């Protein structure tokens, strides 16, 4: 499909092909798993505040549902396209399988710059988009969640739109909701907390301590800000953070609680906080640090800059931040890579907890959620590390092969219909 031919989708397929070749995956399954199970493209007409109607393009892609309902976020971003959404859905399939969650992968999005819309316009956009994808979603079919450019309020609008269609409240149709309508404690910070948990395991594996570690975080949105905050709480020295405009660097370490207060509570830009020297995103990637966390968008680390990285551990908070060519360079440099489908799986793990709580109408304490998250993601790390050592492959290949194998086994057991 021509619409799928994007950089991000080619990266996802290239990773899959490399893993499938290494594990000698059945050729019939290989062809099936390269493409999404379903792809929906919708027009989303929205009446703007000035009275005119603007039409946006929305997507919902379900990559695989052999192991259960599909699961994946919805992103609002100007660069959203079918290829990107399909790639993210594929990665979600492997991510859920790797963590042992009874889900397949899905993803959705709207091609829009959300910050240019008013709150009322965003609500109308979200409700119309939810109505257009209504046939595909549901607590037993496909369960959306927040992603880039969306948040708990977005999920509340989707949950309400779906509930209005069926005539009763359905909290389990989305995760990442506000607590008041069935959201889970610990969900907002879950992805960042998961990044920290697997990074702590990687540090132990390398005989390093968190107290003597320095951390640089590219991307200061939901994932990056929580990662930086929890790393700081654990005793690491966070020396740099950045957003789309650039970043700040302080070799002595940034005061992350004060930075978050100025950046989020007071609305200052990173530059306006004046808490460190101003650096570009590219300069942040090249900083000498123990842990580098790319938590922005995909394909930030390529063959052009990989050789310049000076981190010991690369913990991928974003989806697909490293190209295959960069992977090889980093492996030759001895960088320990915690691949995205492992490192950032905390979000979908706690989304699973939220879904289970909604279905049971029984809610857990935040301590329970953190403990269960730590147990699941830590076990996934050690399974992946053992697989990598046993099969003599990289951590990325180990994670992909483990996830792909679980999905392949589900397909083989279920057989082909008709």
Please explain how this structure is put together:
The protein has 418 residues and is an alpha/beta fold. It folds into two domains: 2-180, Leucine Dehydrogenase, chain A, domain 1 (Rossmann fold), CATH 3.40.50; 190-343, Rossmann fold. It has 15 helices and twelve strands. Helix 3 (82-99) crosses helix 15 (395-414) and helix 13 packs across helix 14 (366-391). The radius of gyration is 21 Å and the shape is globular.
Summarize the model shown.
The chain has 418 residues and is an alpha/beta fold. The strands form two sheets. It has a seven-stranded mixed sheet with strand order 9-8-7-6-10-11-12. It has helices at residues 7-22, 27-34, 82-99, 119-133, 152-166, 190-205, 222-233, 256-265, 270-273, 281-285, 324-333, 340-343, 346-360, 366-391, 395-414, and strands spanning 38-47, 53-62, 70-77, 104-111, 142-146, 214-218, 237-243, 246-249, 277-279, 288-294, 310-315, 336-338.
């Amino acid at each position: 499909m021509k619409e799928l031919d994007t950089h991000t989708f080619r990266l996802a397929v290239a990773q899959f092909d490399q893993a499938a070749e290494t594990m000698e995956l059945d050729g019939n399954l290989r062809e099936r798993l390269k493409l999404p199970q379903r792809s929906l493209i919708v027009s989303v007409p929205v009446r703007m505040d000035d009275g005119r109607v603007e039409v946006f393009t929305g997507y919902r892609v379900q990559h695989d549902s052999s192991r259960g309902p599909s699961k994946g976020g919805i992103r609002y971003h100007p660069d959203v396209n079918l290829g990107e959404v399909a790639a993210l859905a594929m990665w979600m399939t492997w991510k859920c399988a790797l963590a042992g969650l009874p889900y397949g992968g899905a993803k959705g999005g709207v091609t829009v710059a959300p910050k240019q819309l008013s709150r009322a316009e965003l609500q109308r956009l979200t409700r119309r988009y939810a109505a257009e994808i209504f046939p595909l979603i549901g607590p037993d079919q496909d369960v959306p969640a927040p992603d880039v450019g969306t948040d708990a309020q977005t999920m509340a609008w989707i949950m309400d739109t779906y509930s209005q269609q069926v005539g009763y409240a359905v909290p389990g149709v989305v995760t990442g909701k506000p607590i008041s309508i069935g959201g889970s404690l610990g969900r907002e910070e879950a992805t960042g907390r998961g990044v920290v948990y697997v990074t702590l395991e990687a540090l132990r594996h390398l005989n390093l301590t968190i107290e003597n570690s320095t951390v640089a975080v590219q991307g200061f949105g939901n994932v990056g800000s929580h990662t930086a905050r929890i790393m700081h709480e654990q005793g690491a020295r966070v020396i740099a953070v950045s957003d789309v405009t650039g970043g700040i660097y302080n070799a002595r370490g940034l005061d992350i609680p004060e930075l978050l207060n100025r950046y989020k509570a007071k609305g200052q830009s990173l530059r306006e906080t004046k808490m460190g020297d101003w650096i570009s995103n590219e300069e942040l990637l090249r900083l000498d640090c123990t842990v580098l966390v790319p938590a922005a968008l995909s394909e930030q680390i390529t063959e052009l800059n990989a050789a310049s990285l000076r981190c010991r551990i690369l913990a991928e908070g974003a989806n697909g931040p490293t190209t295959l060519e960069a992977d090889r360079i980093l492996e030759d440099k001895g960088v320990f890579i915690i691949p995205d489908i492992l490192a950032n799986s905390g979000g979908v793990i706690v989304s699973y907890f939220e879904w289970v709580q909604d279905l049971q109408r029984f809610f857990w304490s935040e301590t329970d959620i953190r403990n269960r998250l730590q147990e699941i993601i830590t076990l996934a790390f050690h399974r992946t590390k053992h697989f990598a050592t046993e099969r003599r492959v990289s951590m990325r290949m180990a994670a992909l092969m483990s996830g792909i194998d679980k999905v392949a086994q589900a397909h083989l057991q279920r057989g082909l219909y008709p």
